[in-house]
Amino acid sequence: MLVSKMSNFLINQIFGTPIVKIENAFQLNSDEKKFIQNLEMDRADVCLFISKNLNVLQSKELDRVKKEINKHASDFIEKIICVSNMFKMTNSWVAQSERVHKTHDHKNAIFSCVYYVDAENAELEFIRHHNFVTQSYFFDLNYNGKNEFNAFNLRFPVTTGDLMIFPGDMLHMGVNLSDKKKTVLGANYFIMGEVGKEETITSLKI
Fold it and tell me: What CATH number has the domain spanning 17-205?
């Protein structure tokens, strides 16, 4: 996948970690917004609330939203992961934050989708402990510039209607730069059915 062009150098990623941003993926209608706004929430920490319902996309009121997210998840599976294996949505929830949704990952998820229900001015930051150099040699190097290859964090500006798709084990943090509360809708996906092949003694049925 071609990601950058510098002068006469064409730079391609290999063994890359896919992070997908879909701008204005779809818009919620008034009934869908009202349903999300009226969900019962639990306080997770000082500035974070999580819906008590951890399968909100099973609700008939959000059936269209589930189909939209599943459509983009299917594109991620077919075009980025490039496998024919089956995946299923395992959890879905709504999170509201006033400032920072602290650094976390999504355990038991191969990949996750995060849809921005209401975000006037926000960022999604991904954090990693190593870049492609330090994962093999843990040097304290003198960097002259930052890019997607040597960075230890990458920030994506996000707004209402955007959808982010990324591996569940990626450490990430949500940053709300607005005075208005930010609301997101998240969904996790895991593989299902048979994985591997009997002839290579790798068959596993999940």
Answer: 2.60.120.620
